[in-house]
# Entry
Amino acid sequence: MSSNFSFLPAGSVSELEEGLVLTPKFDADGLVTAVATDAATGDVLMVAHMNAAALQKTIESGEAWYYSRSRRALWKKGETSGHSQRVVEMRIDCDQDAVWIKVEQIAGACHTGRRSCFYRAVPLGKSGAKPGEVKLEFAGERVFDPKAAYRK
# Structure
């Protein structure tokens, strides 16, 4: 992969919202939010972050790259587990501070062994709930053994 390009700084609101030049608006930590969805079903698989290097590598390779805030490191999705993401389409939002990638997901996307990181539902319509009283409901089964996939 080459590193022959960098992103230009964001221009005017008009250029951001209607222009054809990718000028991502990175936050104070140098990140944009990235939402990955299944290209076939539209299901949300995960939300992560990308720095300029992750965004560049994703564009150049067609494979999903992210920046881990907890590890403070660039990572390619699936480099440990083998559960990679091939990018089918990539979009940027109106003010270029969030990225949506439609992917072909190999096995599960979540490190817990599930297809999606969004595997628990929050019950709605419960009035008067106090902190600690809202009980989540499981909405997704494990599709792989995380201990086997993430051996170190």
